[in-house]
Design a protein that fits this description.
It is a single chain. The protein has about 525 residues and is mainly β. The protein has three domains: about 1-70, Immunoglobulin-like (Sandwich); about 75-290, Single-stranded right-handed beta-helix, Pectin lyase-like (Pectate Lyase C-like), CATH 2.160.20.10; about 295-515, no CATH class.
Length: about 525
């Protein structure tokens, strides 16, 4: 069965109705009004170059048969060529002013079209009720030099005496930042569509080499601050100076069929880091980066105390994550907590970890992570598929302190995080090397519940030792089974471990084991 995921004015996204992770049961051909448009093998596919406000019939043809679905594209007020407003698109001219002028002049409900070409630019600031479309062969290329990126303050005082106005943030704190290549501040109803490329051009500059010395946080490729109803569809994103896509205190977001890439050695180039956002849908995306693929965040304790907002109602489905440190990560800046996270039908390849939770003492009592569900997941070559770490050794000054790292039970207070219920069902994890599952809770506040059901772990024959979780003096493991430390309840049903070394279930500080 074909399902509509999203229909825009010039593009549309569809999903096949099955339970397989990422890849469709068989190859297929997609026809639009009887004309072949693409051949695919994934559960999610997209069409571009459509005519606005037009009725179409989509037909999917495979060896198993044929299915059709009628749909109608959305209406729009107008479509303008960015070159008609001065952009050169030759890869040499500075197109920043021309593109910004075009964005400001675009009527509400309009679409700004970037035809094939290379548009060399500094940061562009978005506005509400517009669409930007990068067509096939169009590249938005960021300048390599820092001089092209203005510095935005973290907060500005309200001259009328009201609450400060938040502008910039990075790694869980409001702080000065270089403006991102695409920046949305307090916008709504914004659409960014592909299939063109947004390239941060970081390898051509010094962003990845000198960031530790710079007091100003590196730019991202897309930063959304307090935005509403934003859709990013089909774009290819690459080579950001830091995190690639960073929605911040924003709601009702869709990331559909997006591809995000960066070299495996590039520092902190997370693909998508929604921070203190509500209602986030991530469907049919492919991520291969130098750090975490998806990192769900909700700020450090200082931010949680002044602007408390949990990360809530996130859906991740039919995505491919490759090469990163973690496929789906929670934290470590997570002091407002996470609630209602669903991850399903995803394929993880060669990531260090599958699920990775990073928290610690000091993230605070508002750091409540609960209602996390993983279903129908396939992992290939993931070193440690499941990691829950409440001793995360982070870059904060106190990361190695006795308070954070001690194994003695401390009093539960306003700095103590809470981890609730986690469910992992219907998963296949092949070529595990370090550990199948590594859970390390706090003695004073154990993880509440972990359910492992219908999971098959197989180990790589020549597995190499590694550290499953980052904390001070963490020991190496190799072919470890299910390691559970300080968990109130562990439920293990229909779980097999083929090739594990030693005991399959290693439990310490576990109040109840259900098998």
């Amino acid at each position: 069965m074909i399902k509509q995921v999203w229909i825009g004015a010039s593009s549309a996204c569809f999903e096949l109705g099955n339970e397989r992770p990422y890849l469709a049961p068989e190859e297929y051909t997609v026809l639009l009004d009887g004309e072949e448009r693409l051949r695919g093998e994934t559960n999610v596919f997209s069409l571009f170059g459509l005519t606005p406000d037009t009725a179409h019939t989509l037909t999917l043809r495979s060896a198993s048969g044929e299915e059709s679905l009628p749909f109608r594209t959305a209406a729009e007020t107008c479509a303008l060529d960015v070159r008609a407003l001065g952009a050169a698109g030759d890869g040499e001219t500075d197109d920043t002013a021309a593109i910004q002028r075009a964005v400001l002049l675009l009527p509400e409900g309009g679409r700004l079209v970037f035809p094939a070409g290379v548009y060399l630019t500094g940061p562009i600031f978005l506005k509400s009720h517009i669409t930007l479309e990068l067509t096939e062969g169009a590249t938005l290329l960021g300048f390599a030099g820092k001089e092209h990126y203005p510095v935005l303050p973290g907060v500005l005082p309200d001259l009328d005496g009201g609450e400060p106005v938040h502008i910039g943030a990075f790694e869980g704190l409001a702080r000065p930042v270089y403006a991102s290549l695409l920046t949305g501040e307090y916008c709504e109803d914004v659409t960014l569509v592909g299939p063109g490329l947004v390239d941060g051009n970081a390898p051509a500059g010094t962003w990845w080499q000198t960031y530790r010395e710079d007091p100003v946080a590196r730019p991202r490729l897309l930063f959304l601050n307090r935005c509403q109803h934003v859709t990013v569809h089909g774009l290819r994103i690459a080579n950001s100076p830091s995190w690639q896509l960073h929605p911040y205190y924003s709601d009702h977001l869709r990331f559909l069929g997006v591809s995000v890439t960066a070299p495996k050695i590039s520092p902190n180039t997370d693909a998508l880091d929604p921070e203190s956002c509500d209602d986030v849908e991530i469907v049919g995306c492919r991520f291969s980066v130098g750090d975490d693929c998806i990192a769900i965040k909700s700020g450090k304790l200082e931010l949680a105390r002044t602007n408390y907002k949990p990360a809530s109602r996130h859906t991740i489905r039919n995505c491919l994550m490759e090469n990163g440190h973690g496929a789906v990560v929670l934290g470590s800046e997570i002091s407002s907590g996470v609630e209602e996270l669903s991850v399903s039908q995803c394929l993880f390849r060669q990531t260090d970890r599958g699920l990775r939770i990073k928290t610690r003492r000091g993230r605070g009592e508002t750091c409540r992570i609960d209602g996390v569900s993983f279903e129908n997941i396939r992992m290939e070559g993931v070193l440690t598929p499941i990691v829950i770490n409440m001793y995360y050794r982070c870059v904060d000054p106190d990361g190695d302190s006795d308070y954070v790292q001690t194994r003695e039970a401390l009093p539960v207070d306003g700095r103590t995080p809470f981890l609730g219920r986690f469910a992992f069902r219907h998963m296949t994890c092949e070529d595990v090397e370090v550990a199948a599952c590594y859970i390390d809770g706090l003695p004073e506040r154990p993880v509440e519940e972990v359910v492992l059901e219908d999971i098959r772990f197989t180990y790589k024959p020549d597995a190499q030792p590694g550290v499953p979780a980052m904390f001070t003096n963490a020991p190496a493991h190799c072919k470890t089974g299910l390691y559970c430390n300080n968990v109130r309840r562990v439920e293990v049903r229909d779980v097999t471990l083929e090739g594990a070394a030693g005991e399959e279930l290693i439990a310490s500080g576990v109040e109840q084991i259900v098998r």
